[in-house]
Amino acid sequence: MAQSLRVPILMFHRIAPKKRDSIVAGQYVSPRQFERHLRVLRRLGFETTPLSELFQPSMEIPRKPIVLTFDDGYEDFFRNALPPLVRAGMRATVFLVANQIGGSNVWDQSAGDVRESLMNLDQIREAAGLGVEFGSHTLDHVDLTAIDPEEAWRQIADSKCSLEEALGSPIRSFCYPYGRKSTEIMRMVQRAGYRMACSTEKGANTPLTDRFALRRVNVRSDTVGPVLLMKLVRSVRNA
Asked: What is the pTM of this model?
């Protein structure tokens, strides 16, 4: 595998019209803007790959790979992101909060945010059948660095088991809630049997990047086409 390979991983949250009363309004990417993003990626020659296949010696990845990740498992992914992804022949990885399948974003609501529904199990299974890969975002979307090690391990390991039982397929990737991690937390993720984990650190990734500290490119409501292009160029330079 060429050590010069630079792979951006895009980070999305909500694919829906912006709710201005949300405390995280920047997380909303409109459905129309999202479709523009996909067109930009195709024009640039990027091909999507599931996160768990990235940098795996046994997996053949595209010549110019990119990974699309969606944190939290919002229901608007199923309604607004999945159809254009399928039409474009693109793949995605979605990180689920295991104890909130079919529930809502209680972690943000407790901080004063608006309620947003999360995908239910039927929607998740339908999306999986259309090529979407799912990973873990813990049981309850907690800051793993702010809880005791025993609870951190439960959040990491039990979420994997719970999702695998519900979906009937392996859960190979993990995402740190709020991007917060430590050396101890990263070791727990590896010990729990995940292949890799995403952070919120900026930049692209190479075959030499720590698999449990993968960098991402944050796509927000103000990331219009030229801004996305600029972020991609900058991420590759910072790999």
From this structure: 0.96
